[in-house]
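Enoyl-CoA hydratase/isomerase domain-containing protein
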Amino acid sequence: MIFDPDTIDIPNSYETLPLKDVKVSHHPAGAPEATPVIVVTLNRPEKHNSFTLEMMHVFEKIYPIFDVDERVKVVVLTGAGKMFCAGADLERGFSGMEKERNKDHRDRYDDEAAAHSPYINPVNTDINSGGRLALAIHRCRKPTIAAMQGSAVGLGMTMSLPAAIRIGCEKSKYGFVFPRRGLTMESSSSFFLPRLIGYSNALYLITTGGTFPPTSPHFGTLFQETYPDPNQIVTRALELATEVAESVSPMASYLSRELMWRNPGSAEETHLIDSAVLYHMFSGKDSKEGIKAFFQKRKPNFNATLEDDAPPSFPWWSDVDTGRRPKASKASKAKL
């Protein structure tokens, strides 16, 4: 059973949110209200931005808000200091996670859910805290650009896989070191990694557990761009994010990504799905605006939303019961 999505409040400014070890900034920084480009910074530089359960809860809070905030177009994810992310904080550990079982991995836990689902254990309320990090990023309609200005391993790598774009530093090392810690792949990385770089490269990285520069052939095209200077990474990510925010239809971009991720598996089935979506988009407001802006040689003003303008076939996949994305409260929704 899939429950109705929770209603959430959209803040006027993300920079005023009381968050722990994660910083959310507008671009340009200091803007009084949310901007089309939002910067999320892992902010534990003294610990190499090693990831904690508290930080995971922050991501589970902010990404669903980005998802429904129409002011936000693109998210840039980066780290403070010299490293992007050293993986999970092994010193602190993820208290309670060792007690988790398969049936505890659901995004919504309450007495009502427990009464209707055989998979939920209502007793473990301390670990029934939400979905996993990668899914929070993956399910967000707004694309994430991972500006990996420093080295990353383990969870620091898997959190970048749902991003649409990854930019790496040529002086840094990156790797999926799980087998060297006696662990298996996590954060849905066994789904994302082979689809992004192929099974051969993925098997090499996971079999060796080694770390490599972003230009290594073992990464394939995982890093779409690399630069020698760490300071170039965020600068370039913000340039890309601004270009996307100003020039790309959020709905068309999201639906196109979902057509790839939610592909049914055959050319014939894909033809039936993407044709139905495309025919709807031809007559949509964003298509009309995009064509008009092209001929008028100006930036487009795309304003189609999934809530009001989605194709009738959306979603063309079956929802998996990990919880529905929250919906914005119209009463509290921030205005432009």
